[in-house]
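Why this split exists: single-chain examples teach little about how molecules sit against one another. For that reason, every record in the complexes split bundles all components of an assembly together and asks for one structure covering all of them. Below is a record exactly as it appears in the raw files.
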Amino acid sequence: MNNIFKPKQLNTVSKHSLPPSLEPTCVSQAVSHPEWRAAMSSELTALMSHGTWDLIPPPKDYKPVGCKWIFRIKRKADGSVEKFKARLVVKGYNQGPGVDYKETFSPVVKPATIRTVLNIAVMNGWCLRQMDVNNAFLHGMLSETVYMLQPPGFKDLSKPDYVCRLKKVIYGLKQALRAWYSALRSSLLQLGF
Amino acid sequence: MLVYVDDLVITGSDTQFVGHVVNALGSRFSLKDMGLLHYFLGVEVIPTHAGLFLSQHQYIKDILETQNMVGAKDISTPLSTTQSLHLLDGTTLVDSTEYRRIIGSLQYLSLTRPDICFAVNKLSQFMHKPTVTHWAATKRLLRYLKRTIFHGVHIRKAATPCLTTYSDADWAGNIDDRTSTSAYITFLGCNPISWSLKKHRVVARSSTEAEYCALANGASETLWLLALFHELGFPLTVPPSLLCDNLGATHLSFNPVQHSRMKHIQIDLHFMRDHVQKGILHVCHVHTQGQLADLLTKPLSRTRTELLRAKIGLADGSSILRGHIKEAARKSAGA
């Protein structure tokens, strides 16, 4: 007998199938559920109230970027359903550098800094307040001109070939983070930081 | 104030001023005030009578659920001490997408778990070509996480705020290319603040050399933290100390001799010596038994893992969390 044998194959596929995803992957699946429809219209209302875009006839020599809906079930820390959330995102990967965006850098906090600040707060017995900005990116002003196709499922039937000219930043744009950062920065500076 | 995209945490000595800032921001943006800090970047923050407890137990539970490993048998160490991992070990390759997904989600756990840092670092070195052995090691790590699901960093009120950095290296520990691994962990009082480990890019010819690189890495992080404390308005009075378990490296940091064997790490050498001579940093020797960064450089036995884990400041928060979860359940039932 030689010592050559076939290696044991471990099965990575378990016999218990994974639970089916509860989140729809496209609009056609979502419109049949009232909770997802409500989530989509609340997102659109938020976009409209911020005056995010104008509907204009399609410009020549310019290819508008596409957009899509993302559906997520938001859960609390203990795993219970908090809310159904729909988000309209731009397909930022179709944006061209120099054409649709220029600067994209934006700083984020380092984990070590978080722990340091928490340590200082504990040492001095300070209280920690937490908050969350609703539709953070919609506060950022867009400095470049970007054209976007109309959101799927919510097209203006009277003007089907019109496109949206973006005035504010929306999720998925490459410069979204930077625009939000500069908006937050300027208001913090005004507050005297 | 900490800002992570759209999540904000504000703290300050004056509660009224904090409230004023929150209102001023709220008038500009539509804010959702979530009250006291409880859940930030997927980390649950629980106030205890001694300080704050940071835990990612829900995140671990989610990973275990996606892998159908909630009912798996648990284990007491993250990596096996007897079986070393090679790049090519003769076993068949496995699906690298799934492997990468798990390792990627485990990397995020390093926010509150310095004890699995080494295992995650080791396993991610095989990300491009995972084999059955690596997959089994990943499953073992998940079983370790299942046992220690309620462990997290407990930030306690420190009596004397002083920075201490432990640095350690595992000389020539990578079997495939004989490079070393260096690691450091920084404490403020008794709370871990910053930790990191890195596989070297060049091969070190002596253990002193590897340890010295680790010392220099730890020193630069300590200097950054010093600057951060200064910027936040908390200048530390005691100079931070660096602890290293290699006598050669310790002596080299303040003894102005130039060994022929140390010529090629001159930058690290002069960098360290400069700061030690100015009195900014203080380098001491620590016995291997008291070396806390040991946990970050090599797989250890069960007793040593448990000992170091406790010393590092990772606490079992099951009693804290159980009370917390019960209270939350009672609140939601009452509402």
